[in-house]
Automatic annotation (TrEMBL):
Superkingdom classification of source: Bacteria
Native organism: Paraburkholderia humisilvae
PRISE-like Rossmann-fold domain ranges (all copies): 67-355
InterPro entries named among the record's database cross-references: NAD(P)-bd_dom_sf, PRISE-like_Rossmann-fold
Regions that span the bilayer: none
Name of protein: PRISE-like Rossmann-fold domain-containing protein
């Protein structure tokens, strides 16, 4: 049977890399559903809908059937209560449109480690589990839109009879523009600004992140994990952490990123210096750099997510993830995190997003 994938958010960091991976496999037909603000990749059938509107979703998907659906997008709201209302409804609207066709075999939901840490407005305020985080540690006693999305997924799976998987990556490294949570591109732009303006390459985060162990997730590895779970009986109806498989300390990684860009890392003095407050003049500086090097994107707001990078690097505790469950189920893939950063930086240069 032909594998027909619907990717919710196919222009984002996760969905875009997933679409590229599935198309390269050769046995998938890929459709991307989005708001239509960003062009889809070539060879992807495009569907436009407002995911917050059940009528819009139903009309967009009427007469279509898919064997697999991948939820890789969310809509950030002002409060977690609103996140729950809006993002839970988005999942429900899509599954209520696809479930009655009887063709849907699997639905995959991408969330993240805020499953264990809590949402941004209650970040790490609860009884955060011991690291490394394991799937059996369960939910935190706080409002969290991830839990609402999961519940809507489980409810629809019971009602319509398809399988599901939930994927919890750590901070994702990958190519995407206009993405709200993109540390790799943010650090590339920050390093480029430091080099051009001869400013010190200052680590913006906390002593805990500087000194303690952490890990990350390459979007390409996540794409492979999503396909594996969608097609493996061992992964049916399971939740999984998904990270690269190596661990590091930022005190080690920071100098390697600096070396790539040919700049000196500033000594870390233990003070948190958020990028969002330090990059007030960055828009004009980036526009000048873009004009000088003929870059494709002169609007820095299309590239960076200062707030998200600050949140990740400013965490006051160690954040580390266990992959045993995936390994025992058969997913044995691995990705070097430094190589993931360097591959992204090389791609940004090749695409003329940052200077070569």
């Amino acid at each position: 049977m032909e594998k027909k994938a619907l990717i919710i958010g196919a222009t984002g960091i996760v969905g875009g890399n997933l679409a590229h991976h599935l198309l390269a496999r050769g046995d998938w037909h890929v459709t991307g559903l989005s708001r239509g603000r960003t062009a889809q990749q070539q060879r992807i059938e495009s569907v436009t809908a407002d995911l917050t509107s059940p009528e819009s979703v139903t009309n967009a998907l009427s007469g279509r059937d898919f064997s697999h659906v991948f939820f890789t997008a969310w809509a950030r709201q002002a409060t977690e209560r609103e996140n729950i209302r809006v993002n839970g409804a988005m999942v429900r609207h899509v599954l209520d449109a696809l479930g009655p066709t009887g063709k849907l075999k699997h639905a995959a939901l991408v969330t993240g480690l805020k499953h264990y840490l809590g949402p941004f407005e209650a970040y790490a305020k609860g009884n955060v589990p011991l690291t490394p985080f394991r799937e059996e540690q369960g939910r935190q006693p706080v409002d969290n839109f991830y839990y609402e999305q999961e519940d809507r997924l489980f409810e629809a799976a019971r009602k319509y009879g398809f399988g599901w998987s939930v994927h919890r990556p750590h901070t994702i490294i990958g190519f995407a523009l206009g993405n709200a949570m993109n540390m790799g591109v943010t650090l590339a732009v920050y390093a480029t600004l430091c080099k051009a303006t001869q400013q010190p390459f200052v680590f913006p985060g906390s002593p805990a992140q500087w000194d303690r162990l952490t890990d990350m997730t390459d979007a390409r590895l996540l794409a492979r994990h999503l396909e594996w779970a969608a097609t493996s009986p061992n992964a049916r109806n399971e939740d999984f952490n998904v990270v690269n498989g190596d661990v590091f300390r930022w005190k080690w990684m920071w100098s390697r990123i600096a070396d790539y860009f040919g700049i000196e890392p500033a000594p870390f003095d233990g003070q948190i210096r958020p990028l969002e407050t330090r990059m007030q003049d960055a828009s004009k500086q980036w526009a000048d750099i873009a004009a000088r090097h003929q870059l494709k994107e002169s609007d820095i707001d299309r590239l960076v997510s200062w707030w998200h990078t600050d949140a990740d690097l400013g965490r006051p505790m160690e954040v580390l993830t266990d992959m045993t469950k995936s390994r025992k189920a058969g997913f044995l893939d691995y990705q070097s995190t430094p190589d993931a950063f360097f591959a992204l930086f090389d791609q940004l240069k090749a695409q003329r997003i940052i200077p070569a």
